[in-house]
Structures are given as C-alpha cells and as structure tokens.
Write a structure and sequence with these properties.
Distance between the termini: 37 Å
Number of strands: 22
Strand order of the largest sheet: 4-3-10-1-12-15-16-17
Helix content: under 10%
Number of helices: 1
Largest sheet: 8 strands, antiparallel
Strand content: 15-25%
Length: 566
C-alpha cells in the first residue's frame, strides 16, 4: 500500500507512523503545508478579504439576510406569516487566488410588515455573496389581507398569512444543494386566524392550524467555527384567537410569531426569519441579518491582512502576533481654505500575546467624510487592546478655525478677517510610542489657505499665504506584510485665492494622504485619502466666479489591521 496526497492511508508492516506519513506527504508537495494551521474569519457586515499567500481554497458558509414577518390585520382579524430564513449555502474546496481581494456582501434582514391600517407583507432579506457563491435573501411573510396573504419566494419562502395565503417557494433561485425550503400555508377561512411559519434551511415551515400558528422551520447546523451553531431558522406564524397560540421561531434564529403584540425579530447574523404579526393588526418582526464565514489552512508564520471588520479565531499553536493597526484618516475641510484631514493613528508592535481558540473582533476604521459642509473624523481601528484612533478632521472655516484632534490632527483653516486656525493635536488619545502628529496651521494672508493634516511620521505643514508648503505630514513605513509600505499620511491643505494671491496645490503626505484643492491650477476639490492606508483627505479650496466658489473636502482613507502569526 502507499499513500495519496491530501489523504491518510496506513502503510502496513513498514513501521511507519501514519501521522508522519501525512506530514511528509504534505511537506514534499508544498513545504508550507507542514507548518499550516486552520484559520477561521467571520464577516458580520459587508467588507473585503485579501487572500493570504499560500491559500488556494476555502471552506465557507454564506448565509443571506432573512425575510421579515408579515403584519396582521385588525379588520378581518387575520394574522401575518413568518419570514423565510436567508438562503444557506456551505461547501469546501472553493478555489481562491492568493493576493486577490474578494468583495464580501453580508445581506441585511428584511423589514417586518407594517400593521393596521396599512397592513403589508414582510420584506425580503438581501443576498449574501462571496466569490461565485450567492445566497438569496429569505422571503417575506404574507400579510393578514387576502390580496397580499401569499408569502414571498426566497432562499427559504415566507409563510402565508391567514385568510388562505400560500407559503412562498424556497430555494429560489434554485441551487444544488438546496439553499432553503418553502413557507407554510395560512388557514383558509374564519374563525381560524393562524398564519403559516417561514421556511428554514432544514425543513418547510408548518401550516397554520385551527389551534396554532405554524411554527417556523428548523435551520441547519454548521461546525465551521469549531462550535455547533444552527443557522437559518424560519419565523413563526402569527395567531389571534384565544386560547390558542402563535407559532414559535425555528431553531437557527427564527423569531416567534405573535398574539396581540408585534412579531419577534429574527436573530442577527443567524439569518432567522421574523415572526408574523398577530390578528390584532400588529407588525411583523424584522428578519435577521446574514453572515459569511471562511475557513482555510494557513502557514503558521504567515501574514493575515484585514481590510474590513471581521471576527478572527486564533489558530491552534499560535501564541503571539506582530501587529500593525492603522485608523481611518480624517476628512478634509472646506470653505475659504479648509484644513487637510489628519492621518489615522499608526500603531505597531511585536510578540503580542494571543490565546489559541479565542475569537478576536478586528475593527477597521472608516475614513472620515469630506467637508461640504462638514467633515468628520476617521473611525478607530481595533485589535484586542490595541486601538488606533481615527484621524482628526480638517477645519471647515468655522470659528475658531482650528483643526480637530485625532490619531494625527487635522489642519487648521485659513479663515476670513485675519483668522489663522491652529492645527489639531495628534496622538489623541495619548499612546506610547506616539500614534501620530499634529496638523498644520492655516493662514488668511494673500491666500485663504488651510494647514496640512498631520501624519504618522511628521506634522502637517503650516500655510504661509504664498506658497504650497501646507502639505500633509508624511506617514511611516512598515514591512510587516513582507514588503515596505508607507501608511498614515496627512491630507494636503487647501490653497485658495484672495487679493490676487495664488499657490499650487499642496500634496498629501506619503502614505496615502490626499492632495488639497487649489486655485492654480483651478482644481478646488480635494482628493481622497488612499483606501486601507489611513491617509487624510485633501481639503477643498476657494476660488473666483460670479460668486466665490468653495471646493469640496475629500474623504479620508480607511484603516487596516495586519497580523503576523508567531
């Protein structure tokens, strides 16, 4: 006997340990495999995933948002059907390409139907998508009104409302294996007020009966995270006649149907259907949102790059990580001479202790919005106890014209009437080593010019009213990814025009800072900070026209988290 790649075959009478055979086989085929561990990442909201070096296939769960429960109708005393679960698709061996960035869409749950007097069906949930795998949103539950009593089709179908509503079709559109099942039917005539339960990943929803609203169908279990978790249960159907009861939500996050109250919502990130509203005219419950989970073998000493908010399960055998955490850059200001946005905080370190099997939520800070009329600070990026603050926003020429504090500070504005705004403070809140620097000051001399946003490696440039020295502060380079990349540059301040003064555009700092708007050349809008570099947005300028024109400040770049496993 011999052995096959990727499988374990015992070699008889040769004194070889089968475990060693497997290890040796993998080592010969791909040296990284001998040192690989299983990694699980969970996306609870839409984002992106950068496929790491050495990864060629993934196991996946792609679960869509569930349908909302239908509403009841107090007029004829009819109740709403339960929402259908989100489409549930699982698989192994899905091919991926190392170095590619994949867009991940996590579907939202559909809204519950509105109650009397404007009774409506529940809305369908939204699809979840990873690569070529798309799971359809769950169907909304039918309402307690004859013309809209039929449940909607979806990943799993919505339950029919009482008054004869049929259940919606599941596995719509069709996939193989099936992504879900149909909803149950509502009772056809009075005096029975029972609606059907929503379909689930594991079964069809129950029909309403004279004594009870239909139960939501059971979902299916997955162990991809290391624990047994049920997903995609259907919502329970509503009821409205004592002493009987409404349907219960299916195992896997389905919401309960209601009796004299609104239906219960489906569970967030479990894709459970919303419960149906009661015959008293109550609203249906909202469907639960979906989730995307990926599992793959990964080199122990490999690099994990996170470009959107993710749950990361620390692999077996990993005891520490080196890290880079960069916050989102601040938005550039606008007005007479807006200040550049400050870069997101930049923090890096080595040998940070982690615990195998623990789940760590990794938050990626969004870039702040650009000014027109008001800019905003960037969002914080977080890994465990390490928080890098979002960059401070550039001032929008509002009194007292100062830039705003952040990981790096935003630039001050060049305001009217001799106002010169100071730069916002960097390294706020304080960290050691420092996570960033202050923004530059604005000027209102020959130009209305704003200061540059601070960067991780330098303060923003001060405006001087004549030349383009109000640049964004430079960022700082990191080689954690295997090559030297500069992050967290500040946004350039704006250069406008007043009393004939002109100046060229102020550049953003190295590390993704956006360029400020200028009168010469006439390009008043700032440019955005670079995505996943944490650069500050360029500020909007001020120029001539029938009435003077204000350029728009640009958005800051989103942050990033990179881990090197030890």
């Amino acid at each position: 006997m011999g052995f096959k790649f990727g499988s374990l075959t015992t070699i008889g009478n040769r004194g070889l340990n089968p475990t060693h055979v497997l290890s040796r086989t993998r080592q010969m085929s791909n040296p990284l495999w001998n040192f690989s561990r299983s990694v699980v990442v969970t996306f609870k909201s839409s984002g992106t995933w950068l496929c790491p070096t050495g990864v060629s296939e993934v196991e996946y769960v792609v679960l869509a948002g569930a349908g909302g429960g239908g509403a009841g109708n107090a007029g004829p005393n009819w109740s709403g059907g339960g929402g259908g679960a989100g489409g549930f698709r699982i698989g192994t061996g899905l091919a991926v390409t190392a170095g590619n960035t994949y867009t991940i869409t996590v579907g939202a749950g559909g809204s519950g139907g509105t109650g009397s007097p404007n009774t409506s069906r529940g809305a369908n949930g939204s699809a979840s998508i990873f690569s070529s795998i798309e799971s359809a949103g769950g169907g909304g539950g039918g309402a307690g009104s004859p013309s809209i009593a039929t449940g909607l089709n979806g990943g799993s179908g919505g339950g029919g409302g009482s008054g004869g509503g049929g259940g919606g079709t599941g596995n719509f559109p069709s996939t193989n294996p099936s992504q879900g099942n149909s909803g149950g039917n509502g009772t056809p005539t009075s005096p029975y007020k029972a609606a059907g339960g929503g379909g689930g990943a594991g079964a069809a929803g129950d029909n309403g009966s004279p004594a009870k609203g239909g139960n939501g169908a059971i979902g299916l279990v997955s162990t991809i995270t290391g624990s047994s978790i049920y997903y995609a249960g259907g919502g329970g159907g509503g009821f409205g006649q004592e002493p009987f009861t409404a349907g219960t939500g299916g195992l896997g996050g389905g919401g309960n149907g209601s009796f004299n109250v609104s239906g219960s919502p489906g569970s967030t990130n479990l894709g459970g259907g919303g419960g149906g509203g009661s015959a008293s005219g109550d609203a249906g419950g909202a469907g639960g949102s979906g989730v995307v989970i990926l599992k793959y073998n990964f080199p122990v000493t490999g690099i994990q790059t996170f470009t959107s908010t993710t749950d990361w399960i620390c692999p077996t055998g990993v005891t520490s990580v080196d890290y880079l955490v960069v916050g989102g850059g601040g938005g550039g200001g606008y007005g007479y001479g807006g200040g550049g946005g400050g870069a997101g905080g930049f923090r890096t370190g080595t040998s940070y202790p982690v615990t195998a099997g623990n789940t760590y939520t990794i938050t990626i800070g969004a870039g702040g919005t650009g000014g027109n009329p008001s800019s905003t600070n960037g969002g914080n990026s977080i890994f465990d106890t390490i928080t890098s603050a979002g960059g401070g926003r550039g001032n929008d020429t509002t009194s007292p014209w100062a830039g705003f504090a952040g990981g790096s500070g935003g630039g001050g504005a060049g305001g009217g009437s001799g106002q010169n705004g100071s730069g916002g403070a960097g390294n706020t809140p304080t960290t050691s080593p420092s996570q960033g620097n202050s923004g530059g000051a604005g000027s209102s001399d020959a130009l209305y010019s704003g200061g540059g946003g601070g960067g991780a490696g330098a303060t923003g440039g001060n405006a001087n009213g004549s030349t383009a020295v109000n640049v964004g502060g430079n960022g700082t380079a990191s080689s954690i990814s295997g090559s030297s990349v500069t992050y967290a540059g500040g946004g350039g301040g704006a250069n406008g025009q007043r009393n004939g003064g002109t100046a060229a555009a102020a550049s953003g700092g190295t590390g993704g800072g956006g360029t400020g708007g200028s009168f010469t050349p006439l390009s008043l809008n700032g440019t955005a900070g670079t995505t996943n570099r944490g650069g500050g947005g360029g500020a909007g300028g001020y120029g001539p026209g029938p009435s003077y024109t204000y350029g728009t400040g640009a958005a800051g770049g989103s942050g990033i988290v990179i881990l090197k496993l030890n």
